[in-house]
Design brief:
two-stranded antiparallel ribbon, 8-stranded mixed β-sheet, 290 residues, single chain, alpha/beta, globular, Rossmann fold
């Protein structure tokens, strides 16, 4: 059988897997983003610790591992095998057991057995095709790092994620904010490109290596609401990250007192509809009806 050709998004994340976490380590801005993100995740977690969670686009496993430390059973999914290697190594270092399920190199993977709360399933899969994952298999699905943006068919991927939710389950995703892409096109004087971008949300991840550039889709608040309606999910939360311009004033975050004050202000404002356009990312939580 001929060897599978990796997509550009897969090649890029395979290459950076070993240094990925180091990009953010010790950076006061990203530490603030992670603090806001975790507190927002906690607001939507199942009350029952026996609930099963899924970290999609998990990368090295940052959020899934935190959920395990909080007491939940967690599965991991990513398109990058090398990212999954990082997550598996960290699970092993925590004394946790995992099994690997390859949906990309194995055309018809054997269906998994009943979920064991002591064992994490690590899925090597493309979010454009989640057919190997069973229906109604998870109570909470989190996707940080904007995995939905990187799919070729985001509506299909979103439909599949909704399918994986159990009744009453919550899907919490971070996505790139389309309104933040406007300056890129205006800076190039590309009005025609801007019109197309605002209509479709399609643009390109700009990697240094042209071979690693890949198409992405950016989203608007209205589009998020529309996708939730299509899948009959209740939109329970929509915030911007961050609505305050913390990246431009990141030096203020080095002062613990100012950092805490700014994060309190951010969390008091980031659900304000009028301020969502300020945010690089939109984060939303949607619940499947019981």
């Amino acid at each position: 059988m001929p060897r599978r050709v990796r997509s550009p998004v897969e090649r890029y994340h395979d290459r950076v897997a070993g240094v990925y976490d180091g990009i953010y380590a010790g950076n006061a801005y990203w530490e603030a983003i992670f603090a806001v993100t975790w507190r927002n995740i906690v607001r939507h977690l199942p009350k029952d610790l026996s609930s099963r969670c899924l970290d999609v686009g998990c990368g090295s496993g940052r959020w899934g591992l935190r959920l395990i430390r909080a007491g939940y059973s967690v599965d991991f999914l990513d398109i990058s095998q090398k990212m999954l290697d990082q997550a598996a190594n960290r699970l092993a270092a925590m004394g946790k057991t995992s099994i690997r399920l390859d949906c990309l190199n194995t055309p018809s993977p054997a269906p998994p057995g009943p979920a064991d709360p002591r064992i994490s399933r690590i899925w090597h899969a493309d979010m454009d095709n989640l057919s190997a994952l069973p229906d109604a298999s998870h109570d909470f699905i989190v996707g940080q790092g904007d995995p939905l943006n990187c799919t070729e068919k985001p509506r299909q991927a979103f439909k599949d994620l909704a399918r994986l939710l159990r009744p009453g389950g919550v899907l919490l995703l971070s996505v790139d904010n389309r309104l933040q892409g406007i300056d890129h096109f205006l800076g190039k004087g590309d009005v025609e490109g801007l019109e197309k971008f605002l209509r479709t949300g399609r643009t390109q991840w700009i990697a240094d290596d042209p071979n690693e550039r890949y198409p992405i889709t950016m989203f608007t608040p209205g589009q998020i609401r529309g996708m939730c309606r299509e899948r009959k999910l209740e939109l329970v939360s929509l915030i911007g990250k961050t609505v305050l311009p913390l990246r431009r004033f990141k030096d203020l975050l080095d002062d613990p007192a100012k950092r805490n004050a700014l994060l309190r202000l951010e969390e008091s404002l980031h659900g304000e509809e009028a301020l969502l356009a300020n945010a690089s990312h939109l984060e939303f939580a949607a619940r499947k009806p019981d």
